[in-house]
Amino acid sequence: MRLFIATPIPLRGFQELTKELSPYIQGKWSKEENLHLTHKFIGEDDPNNWKIPLSPPKESINISDFGIFNNKILYLKASSPNINQIATLLGVKNFVPHVTLCRMKHYDSALLEKLQTIQISQSFAFTLYLYQSILTPKGPIYKKIWQY
Question: Are 56 and 127 in contact (CB under 8 A)?
């Protein structure tokens, strides 16, 4: 199975945000039900190998500010005092906590100005799940298979 460990992010106002930003972007938006913060992408493995003792920190994850990776990924920055803890325990290096919003093919230069006018500030429970990722022609389907 194709696996990853993540925190689900039920972002309020996601549909409105996509409508507001879509005129500036050509690309594929994440499905609202798939929004998450990946702590570790595992790839193909037996899920039983990942039913290990992990405890999420007793704190919230805060989402604010936009970012763009390599002119291709529009994301929201995620933070909390111990957000790197799980990634570090799982051996992830150069962890950049984020929630992918859109995989962009192209964007208008006015997007950068538009992003500065949008205020996002939300908090979410720091929960951890082992997910199965099923790739389909219509996009990935994520299934929670284990809660830590």
Answer: yes
Q: What is 2-147's CATH number?
A: 3.90.1140.10
Instruction: State phi, psi for 61 to the nearest 5 degrees.
Output: -100, 130
What is the full DSSP assignment across 133-144?
EE--TT--EEEE
Per DSSP, the residues of 1-63 read -EEEEEEE---TTHHHHHHHHGGGEEEEEPPGGG-EEEEEEEEE--GGGG-------SSEEEE
Determine how many CB atoms are found less than 10 A away from the CB of residue 126: 19
Q: How confident is the model at residue 138 (pLDDT cuts 50, 70, 90)?
A: confident
> What would the mean pLDDT of 129-143 be, rounded to a whole number?
95
Q: Using the structure block, give the residue that is written with the tokens 């999420």.
A: 56
Q: Terminus-to-terminus CA distance in the chain, angstroms? A: 18
Domain boundaries, the chain: 2-147
- Whole-model pTM: value is 0.92
Cβ within 8 Å of residue 112, ≥6 positions away: none
